[in-house]
Amino acid sequence: MRSRNQPRNQPHDPPKRPSQIIQSDDPKVTPVSGIASRPLEQPSPISAPARTKVLVVEDEALIRDTVVFSLEEEGYEVHAIEDGRLALDLFYRSLEQHDSNAWQPDLVILDLMLPHVNGLDLCRFVRSQASTIPILILSAKGTETDRVVGLEVGADDYLTKPFGMRELIARCRALLRRSQRDDDEPKQDSLCRGDLELFPEQCRVSRNGQSVSLAPKEFKILELFMRNPNRVWSREQLLERVWGPDFMGDSKTVDVHIRWLREKLEVDPSHPQHIQTVRGFGYRFS
């Protein structure tokens, strides 16, 4: 029999949520790999647009659970996948087979190092289906080359680990705002300039009726040019409009893409008729 002075059994502490795991102020706590170890200030809740769906493809359980929890706290509908092959199957059904019953995201948060199918291949597949779903890459690979490659294959933004949840949420909101603006713009069946014809909805370009294969960033540059003929664009303006305001790479990236476009579209790339250099300023399409 328990004596009167003997304390009763104490109830177990409730399990901690993922966000509590990474916010400890105790200096003895070892930082979790892949997540910023500093305490995370929670922003005031802002309601997400109704039915905004976010797909998180991440194989590290702690990161995945924390991201999912934080997005759900903001009001988003979140679906998490830890395997690249499963993500590819979802994309295949919703994009290539146009399965109306498949879960279709409005935004994808994508890790690069995934089992079975890596993030770069997933990104390529999504863009090969002429999909404009915003893609944000999360990766521990943070060199300039890694970021450029990720953006080149079709990602809209790139965030390196460790990262703060406030920044991730802010980037998600920015991508969704940009995507909504694009959806609200009046659509045209095609844009014609001389021997070039661009089909925005199909992400397709032809020259003299012959299809021309362009990488995602090349297509975006050309579409911007063809919507704004004779306007002079600086490298910085092109970087902001095509790569986004958070791009950290060199402005010479623009020059490289212009050269590739000329090689694919101009009769004589050394004497371009469409994409012209305006010395001291940038580029103009005519």
- CA-based gyration radius: 23 Å
Oligomer: single chain
Q: Please state how the strands of the largest beta sheet are arranged side by side.
A: 2-1-3-4-5
Stretches where pLDDT is under 50 for at least 5 consecutive residues are: 6-41
Using the coordinates shown, work out and report the CATH topology of the largest domain.
Rossmann fold
Summarize this, please?
The chain has two domains: 49-184, 3-Layer(aba) Sandwich (Rossmann fold), CATH 3.40.50.2300; 191-285, Winged helix-like DNA-binding domain superfamily/Winged helix DNA-binding domain (Arc Repressor Mutant, subunit A, Orthogonal Bundle), CATH 1.10.10. Helix content is 36%, strand content 17%.
Question: Could you give the topology of this structure?
Answer:
Layout: H1 18-21, E1 53-57, H2 61-73, E2 77-81, H3 84-96, E3 107-111, H4 119-128, E4 135-139, H5 144-152, E5 157-160, H6 165-184, E6 191-193, E7 196-199, E8 204-207, E9 210-212, H7 216-227, E10 232-233, H8 235-243, H9 252-265, E11 275-278, E12 282-285
Parallel strand pairs: 1-2, 1-3, 3-4, 4-5
Antiparallel strand pairs: 6-7, 7-8, 8-9, 10-12, 11-12
